[in-house]
Amino acid sequence: MNDSSPVGSFRKIPYMGVIWVVAEAEKRGFWNGHPDWCNLGQGQPEVGEMEGAPPRIRSIEIDPCDHAYGPVGGTIELRERIADHMNRLYRQDHRSKYTADNVSVSMGGRLMLSRIFASLAPGRLGYQVPDYTAYQDMIQHQGSRLAPLLIPTHETNGFGLTGEEFESAVREHDLNAYVFSNPCNPTGHVVQGEDLAQMVRVARRQNCTLISDEFYSHFIYNDSQPGSGPISAAMHIEDVDLDPVLLVDGLTKSFRYPGWRIGWTIGPRSMIETLNRAASSLDGGPSRPMQRAAFEALDPARADQETEALRTVFCRKRNFMMDRLESLGIRCSPQPSGTFYIWADLSELPEPFNDSLQFFHAALEKKVMTVPGTFFDIDPDQSRPESNLFRSWMRFSYGPDEQTVKKGLDRLETLLSAVLCSKS
């Protein structure tokens, strides 16, 4: 990976946060799967066999029709299965149900989000920080139409918006759309209950398109225990064809198949039709063989076994990492109710480790990867001066297997212990 000027007419494009982390590690010999590296910055869950989960899907039968182009929005079979999946989890007691016409499938979540931003009409798009780093470029690509507006969050609310704060923001700024990850990457904060219900009501009343990025929907914890089930704005929608709410999810996180690149959006059929029109020029639609595999992954019994095991195993890793970080003088805030990330404040560590970039580079020397918090201070229109807002914050991932998480934390303890001893 080199940072030299692009050849020809290409512009220079900076790495997205996690990709920059990987590029810096590669300079020191890292490669994906390297047995001596501990990637506590990774944005994917462990993908191997897992305690309590069904066996990993290892083969796909390819039908002859799979060699041809498929529908740009996904096959009817998979879209029906996704609609049934959502209705079963979130809408059993609702009159209005999702159908295949409410579903669009893409090759991964980032592509689906790109379709959404490309489909938004000119207007004001609200966003929060800290939030998913890729939003910055996705929104920036549509800068001729979209006016991004930062809606501030506060640590006292877990760096998320309450329902009342969201309503105030929509009214004050006359927002046409709002995007947020829920559960949130990087903080692990979950908007749920009445706050989430109020956000859906406000979107309905104000005709504000609510884009709820729910890729971590099944990573839900109740204090130190696994949650009883997933969280989604789908629980609070009145009419699936009238409420302007788009739900983005897929197999990448909750089903631990990131390499399959299968994502989807659920929403009103008129909006889904527009997304599919955008797909016809942006990407041409998803892979038919991978959709066939996805159909199996979403079998109800298999899906429930996978996601229940997920919450049990990842809650255990969450608790372990939180305890270890706190013991090192690293403050975890908020205590994550979702995802497989911990948003942690380094400010109480001795210099230079109270600076996330300094911490990051020192940890790399121990072959441990983390993600500095500054990457989550997204600024799509580059209208704010360089900010040190999250300079003392770090995202730690407990996505890897338990042995790797433990080894990485042991190395960080050795690193920090050596510094503390040298200063005493």
Secondary structural class: alpha/beta
Architecture of the largest domain, CATH level 2? 3-Layer(aba) Sandwich
Low-confidence stretches: none
CATH class category label of the largest domain: Alpha Beta
What would CATH call the homologous superfamily of the largest domain?
A: Type I PLP-dependent aspartate aminotransferase-like (Major domain)
Write the H/E string, N to C.
HEHEHEHEHEHEEEEEHHHEEHEEEH
Count the helices. How many? 11
Per DSSP E runs of 2 or more residues, the count of β-strands stands at 15
Biggest sheet: strands, sense, closure?
A: 7 strands, mixed
Tell me the CATH topology of the largest domain: Aspartate Aminotransferase, domain 2
Overall mean pLDDT score?
Answer: 95
Q: Kindly state the percentage of residues in helix.
A: 25-40%
Distance between the termini: 40 Å
> How many domain modules?
2
Strand order across the largest sheet: 2-10-9-6-5-3-4
Name the beta content range. 5-15%
Using the alpha-carbon principal axes, give the shape. Answer: globular
Q: Radius of gyration over alpha carbons?
A: 21 Å
